[in-house]
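Predicting holo structure, aspartyl-adenosine-5'-monophosphate bound.
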Amino acid sequence: MTTRTLTKNLAAATDGAISVSGWVETVRDQKKVQFVVLRDESGAVQLVHPRMFADDGTPLDDPIAAEISALSQGTFLTATGELKHDERVKLGGVEIKLDALVVAARANPETPIAEDSSGDKRMDWRFLDLRLPKNNLIFRIQTTLEHAWRSYWVEHDFIELHTPKLMASASESKAELFEVSYFEGKAYLAQSPQFFKQMAQPAGFGKIFEVGPAFRADPSFTSRHATEFTSVDSEISWIDSHDDVMRLHEELLVAGFTAVKAKHGAEIAELFGVDVTVPATPFPRIQLAEAKRIVAARGYDVPRADDDMDPEGERQIAAYVKETFGHEFVFLTDYASSIRPFYHMRHADDASLTNSYDLIFNGVEISTGAQREHRVEVLESQARDKGLDPEELGFYLDFFRYGVPPHGGFGMGLSRVLMLLLQLPNIREATYLFRGPTRLLP
Ligand code: AMO
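Done. Tokens:
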């Protein structure tokens, strides 16, 4: 058996016998010569087959020609033949003159989607949609990003956690909570690893991270919400304030973007028209109240009565930061206690503000981070303030009764980072399989 060569390695291979496997992208079935573009996970190659004729011009029995004429787009096959370098061939400067074709699985002749099909239709046929080079690239970038982050964490002695996603209570808020039946009782799907990543602090783990699923029963149809998403979390001991968390956060993003730019920068520019910028540190930091003043001065009054920033406000402050500092990221800091969870530490001199931040990337929130309240009596009273029952939170509050270091961390939505990095219009495009209020398939 000839070993399979990936199409991306053909340019560097020597001319001669070769075997490639992939799926049929196009067939040009001409009178004298047939061409097939075969794509695999790494790229594409042109297969060529000159039809066979007798001296008098009558077609000869030609099983390969017959096979090519019968090929439907999407068919997976193995092709063997002679590799030939030829700079006139636009696709990679090589082609393979066919000796044999072995079909592994034939595709139905009618493809259910086209490039201009609606987003929903493409999601219905996601496995076909994912064959597009652009979509393939998104998940190679995701792999590089996660690998770079993991390398950073491992090099800095973080411990990786896998916390349970079945919980006895809500982890963020009672809103947006999925309830599942659990034997005689009920359980809830984790909205965040929040409680369990914090638990690693009294456990004496020091620095931890987790990349895992999170669930939100959010009925809205926006371009940035999913009901299930991958949450990238980190939590560290012995911080002085949320400033230490922001420093970790920006170092991690720099490590990720450096790796993505080095490995995929050229392809990203080609397929997405985006020039990846490795962000300079420190990222701009603006207190939320100040950010709202800046946005108001630009002519946009954030309408929210509850002190929060709305999506248009986020876009406006990002535009200001881009114009003023040439930066794609901004930390908005010191959110009001009224709109932050009970576990955020409040300012020592002003309990109406928290040691917290949101990280905005190209105009959209990708992350929330904070210093946590670790003094159990304060924590208990903040929970009560928010109308939570300390009894129900008993197991969590116990974490703080037997010694705990000051700590903080952040949670970041993986698909949001990809969406904004590649300037995609919707989080669905940046998620392998999107889950939303009306989508559980495939
Ligand atoms: P928060 O609720 O802000 O904070 O979530 C953190 C980040 O997770 C992503 N995210 C989502 N992505 C897609 N669809 C959703 N429905 C969705 N909800 C959230 C966003 C968001 O910024 N426990 C805290 C984090 C912490 O303090 O450590 C938390 O979950 O990118």
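The longest strand covers residues 16-29.
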